[in-house]
Amino acid sequence: xxxxxxxxxxxxxxxxxxxxxxxxxxxxxxxxxxxxxxxxxxxxxxxxxxxxxxxxxxxxxxxxxxxxxxxxxxxxxxxxxxxxxxxxxxxxxxxxxxxxxxxxxxxxxxxxxxxxxxxxxxxxxxxxxxxxxxxxxxxxxxxxxxxxxxxxxxxxxxxxxxxxxxxxxxxxxxxxxxxxxxxxxxxxxxxxxxxxxxxxxxxxxxxxxxxxxxxxxxxxxxxxxxxxxxxxxxxxxxxxxxxxxxxxxxxxxxxxxxxxxxxx
Length: 264
What we know:
Elements: H1 3-9, E1 15-20, E2 23-28, H2 39-50, E3 58-63, H3 82-100, E4 106-110, E5 113-115, H4 117-123, E6 127-130, E7 135-137, H5 151-159, H6 161-170, E8 174-175, H7 176-182, E9 187-188, H8 194-206, H9 210-225, H10 228-243, H11 246-256
Parallel strand pairs: 2-3, 3-4, 4-6, 5-7, 6-9
Antiparallel strand pairs: 1-2, 7-8
Helix pairs in contact: 2-3, 4-5, 5-6, 9-10
C-alpha cells in the first residue's frame, strides 16, 4: 500500500484525502449532516495533522456538498457532567491546535454554513477562501451554550470581542461579504470557485522554503501576542534563522543575479 493510501486508510469515513503533488486535499465528508463534526471526525483531524505525510507541504481543507461545517453534531452532546464537558472541549482544543500550530499551512474552502464549531474550525486554518454562499453564525448563546472549540480565543482575533459578543447574544448571521470585510475570510470568490483558488494558493505556499513557513506558522502568532520588546527580539531571532538557511541563501543569490522574478 502506498503511503498516501495508508494515511487515508487510517481516517474515518467522514474524512477523505487525496494528493495533488505536494498538496494534500482533506475533505469533510458528512454532507447529509451539513458536515457537522462528531468526535470521530475531530479525532481524524487530530490524527492527520499530528502525523501528516512527510512530503506534504500544504493542505486544502474542503467539504463535500453545499456547506463547509454546521458545527458540533448535537447528537454528540447528550447529557454529561461538568468534568466530562471540560474534557470534551479540551479534546477539540487539542485537535484544532494541531491545525493552527502544526507544520503545514492550511487553506480552507468556506461555503454555505460556517456555523458554531465550523467557524471555530475555520478560524484555526491559516488562509480562508469563501464562496458567495457562505454565512457565519455562533448560535451557542441562543441555545444556552458557550463555544467550546477555541472560538472565544481565535474568533475575536479576527473580528473583535464586540462583534463576537453581538453574534452570540443576538444570533446575528454574517453573509459572505460581511465576513470578508471583517476579516474572517481572506478571499471571496465567484460561486463554485473556492476549491480551485484554494488549491492554487496551496501550491504557491508549497513553493516556500520550509524555514520561512515554520517562522510564519510558529513565530508570527507568538510575536503578535508578545510585548513589543519580546516581539522585536523574537523577530530578530527568526529573521537570522531563516536567512541563514541554505535555500534562502540560494534564492537570494538568484534574486541578486536577476534570475528570480521581482514583485510587481
